[in-house]
Amino acid sequence: MKFLRKWATPLTVASFLIMGVTGTLMFFHLDSGLNKLIHEWAGWVMLVGVLAHVVLNWRAFTTYFKRPLAMGIMGLGVVALAASFVPVGGSGGGDTVRMVMMSISSAQVETMIALSGKDTDAGLAALAEAGYDAQQGQSMATLTGGDRATQDAILAVLFAQ
In DSSP terms, which residues pair with 108 in a beta bridge? Predict the structure, then answer.
């Protein structure tokens, strides 16, 4: 148990810090680079840290099940978790903006250039001038490496007046 005590709480705190910052960035759509990937993996790390923390503090943990306020808060957590599995978005299959962004990611570069009102050569030239090595037949996902911030920057270049 002494070994667990040395790392359980620091691991929980560190992973909470990562989860809090990256989760906030994702909520406001300000995430970029590896934020989402690190957020997902930090969730697993946090799970390990919290489980170790509960094992170390089992006796104190069980006392929360005797307190009405604590039970209410934990009950709300269970309800929120259950609600997270309820499908939303009607028959359309989900959030429209998310579906559009996913379509943009899979679209070919020349399709996005055409949507911007430019001809293919002018669009490729504008992207090259901005530092993007775009090729005909290349998907936006390949060009951006899946990075949403890069995708937004490329769209800004294409749709600039």
Answer: 139
